[in-house]
Design a protein that fits this description.
The chain has 694 residues and is an all-alpha fold. Among the domains are: 119 residues; 130 residues, no CATH class. 64% of the residues lie in helices and 1% in strands.
Length: 694
């Protein structure tokens, strides 16, 4: 099993943590009789040798020994070894070539393909866990399509373990997808077999798995009554599970692999089956919404919990008419199942105004259960409770008296002020209490920043001019060495700008900040208070054109974008900045170029408008297509221009008509993405409505 392991110069090889001299011990640990040692070794393989899916030279050197481990029946937990091999073989994407890591990944795949017969033998292994892991490896690494298909067909015929059957269906779907591009006749056989598995006499779980795979590789083979069929099968499966609970993993060892396993949904299998189907249905939004409603009305709380999390994926990507499923998610707030309640709160909090159909449920919860108004954390200051935060983010005025009760209590979460802007004038009655808290705030406390910034944001949103003295006290009295002083200063300056002419006593303070890091915010506020363009344009122009590099470059780009935004709002009064703005439209980051182009468009007077549009409209169109994050800025400019913005109305009409959210293709998870997309749609509709175009 480990023949030749000591002949490898492991010390010369590398993994994520440096020298790979510890790898022989890890490989031997995978074969240990001690379960804790095996799990620790597997955890370390993922944490270093195959860190974040990367393939190192030590990873490649491990492949022959991992194959030998997988083939030895006396080795326990071989399913984990097979899964590790599948992950290594899939690193970097199929067909990767070239030098460096890509070459190592390709060589690892080649080594696994050379050992493909190992996985053919494992397909019939005595260990059900190994049989469950084998189909994915078999399809990927045994380059003999006829033999692969025959093996899968045979195993489906003789297999009696339901979870292995699901893995075989998934392997069959993967096989069909891999063969379809080449037009291989084996793909049609695989599709026919999946279609057979999707009907009687097979069990509901296997039928659901087959339908999910068909949706991915042959959607034309799906039944016309897909949604009712899936809902019925889901409930049949749930009934079987209730009568005989699926085996759950025990507490296990406290390793990364163990923790990830315990974080899976209670019914990970059901979650995977429905996730597969939802992902395959893609833009069939009406079907997916109907399916979610079926899931959310299931008698089984685990089905409903899975549905809540799946709904989040749909809402993040698609602009669906989702009032019905959102109301049903709200109905889960009364569930005794804690995991289901927590899932509903998390998803509703991400939806902001879209969660309005669930507002009645949220209000009932925070009204009857005060413990959900404040979240007391083990570490750190308390925060606003998830249900109350979600209710306030919908804009429902019923959140105001509940927030008033919290403000009057002995413990007030620092982040309470952050939800006030979503309530708008409906929260006006909270201004005196917020103002008093700002006035009593310590100027040199360790948590001044955490307390002050949300309060200032709330008072700014309410336009509470009576808080000017308290804002100035904070602005003038904070010690220079206070941590995050600039963040507090910026928030205070923005609040003064929101108060407009009522903040005239702050003019000397604002002038004094024009040469600091808060110069752009101070210039914006000074313009709002005094309307003196000659005092702020030179400051903004300097921030617009300041060079930078590294982190300074990023900060400079942010400042330049903000300066261009302010100059655009000044309009013709900022005419002196036009040459500098024109230069920025051709350089810098996308946000800078878009903001500068918008500013030029808004500032340019009638005689030169046509010439300016010839230059800036291509800049804005390119930014709109290539950098979706700039769309709100551009749409806001079009809305502000009124009839003058007509040359870009086609972009706004296409945006409003698009079923997908504008940042659906962007990488990374942003919990504000849905809210920002809804804001973009509102701005587009306002702009088009003014011209009768929406």
């Amino acid at each position: 099993m480990f023949r030749g392991i000591d002949e490898v110069d492991w010390a010369s090889l590398r993994h994520a943590d440096g020298s790979a001299e510890d790898v022989p011990g890890l490989l031997r640990g995978l074969a240990s009789a001690d379960p804790a040692e095996r799990e620790t070794a597997l955890d370390r393989m993922y944490g270093a040798v195959h860190h974040q899916g990367d393939v190192y030279d030590s990873t490649l050197a491990c492949v022959p020994f991992l194959l030998a481990l997988a083939a030895r029946e006396e080795v326990c937990d071989r399913a984990g070894v097979v899964e590790l091999l599948v992950s290594i073989g899939g690193a970097g994407g199929e067909g990767t070539d070239g030098g460096g890591a890509g070459d190592l990944a390709a060589r690892a795949r080649a080594a696994l393909c050379a050992g493909g017969e190992v996985f053919a033998r494992l397909a019939g292994d005595a260990d059900a866990g190994v049989r469950r892991a084998a189909p994915g490896a078999l399809v990927r690494f045994l380059d003999r399509p006829a033999r692969v298909l025959a093996l899968i067909r045979e195993r489906i015929t003789v297999e009696r373990d339901d979870r292995v059957l699901l893995a075989l269906a998934e392997g069959l779907g993967l096989f069909a997808r891999r063969q379809l591009p080449a037009g291989d006749t084996h793909a049609a056989e695989a599709v026919d077999l999946l279609a057979a598995l999707s009907g009687p006499p097979y069990g509901p779980g296997l039928r659901l798995a087959a339908l999910g795979q068909l949706a991915q590789c042959a959607p034309e083979s799906l039944p016309t009554d897909l949604v009712p069929t899936v809902v019925r099968l889901l409930r049949d499966r749930s009934g079987q599970r209730v009568r005989g609970r699926l085996a759950q993993d025990g507490p296990g060892v406290d390793t990364l692999a163990g923790r990830l396993r315990r974080l899976r949904p209670s019914d990970e299998e059901g979650s995977r089956l429905l996730r597969t189907l939802h992902a395959a249905l893609g833009g069939r939004v009406a079907d997916r919404v109907a399916l979610l409603c079926g899931q959310l009305t299931s008698p089984d709380p685990l089905d409903r919990c899975n549905a809540v999390w799946m709904s989040a994926g749909l809402f993040r990507e698609w602009r669906a008419d989702a009032a019905e499923p959102i109301a049903l998610i709200g109905a889960q707030l009364g569930a005794e199942e804690g995991r289901l309640h927590d899932a509903a709160v998390a998803v509703l909090g991400e939806l902001f105004e879209l969660a309005l159909p669930a507002a009645d449920h949220l209000h009932a919860l925070v009204n009857c259960r005060p413990e959900f108004r404040i979240h007391h954390r083990e570490r750190g200051a308390p925060t606003l409770g998830g249900p109350l935060k979600a209710l306030a983010r919908t804009g429902d005025a019923r959140a105001t008296p509940v927030l008033a009760d919290v403000l009057a209590g002995p413990v007030v979460p620092h982040d309470l002020g952050l939800v006030i802007p979503h309530l708008g004038r409906a929260a006006a009655s909270l201004a005196p209490a917020l103002r008093r808290r700002l006035a009593r705030l310590s100027l040199d406390g360790r948590d001044t920043h955490e307390r002050a910034v949300p309060l200032l944001a709330a008072l700014a949103a309410l336009g509470d001019a009576e808080s000017v003295p308290s804002v100035l006290r904070l602005l003038r009295g904070m010690p220079d060495g206070l941590r995050l002083r600039s963040a507090v200063t910026g928030a205070a300056v923005r609040a003064l700008g929101a108060f407009g002419g009522a903040a005239r006593e702050a003019v000397p303070d604002l002038r004094g900040l024009l040469e600091t890091d808060c110069a752009v915010a101070a210039a914006d506020a000074l313009w709002s208070v005094t309307g003196e363009a000659e005092a702020v344009v030179p400051v903004l122009l300097r921030r617009l054109t300041e060079p930078g590099s590294g982190r300074c470059r990023r900060a400079s780009a942010t400042a330049a974008t903000a300066a261009a935004d302010v100059l655009g709002r000044l309009g013709p009064a900022a005419a002196a900045a036009l040459p500098g703005l024109r230069r920025v439209t051709g350089s810098g980051e996308a946000s800078e170029r878009a903001a500068a182009a918008c500013a030029v468009w808004r500032i340019a007077g009638e005689p030169e408008r046509e010439r300016e549009e010839e230059h800036i409209l291509p800049v804005l169109r390119a930014a709109w297509v290539e950098h979706p994050r700039t769309r709100t800025t551009i749409a806001g400019c079009v809305a502000a221009l009124g009839p003058r913005g007509a040359p870009l109305h086609d972009l706004l009409r296409a945006e409003v008509a698009s079923p997908r959210r504008h940042r659906a293709d962007c990488s990374g998870y942003d919990r504000h993405a849905i809210h920002e997309d809804e804001g973009l749609l509102r701005v587009c509709r306002v702009a088009l409505g003014r011209e009768g175009g929406g």
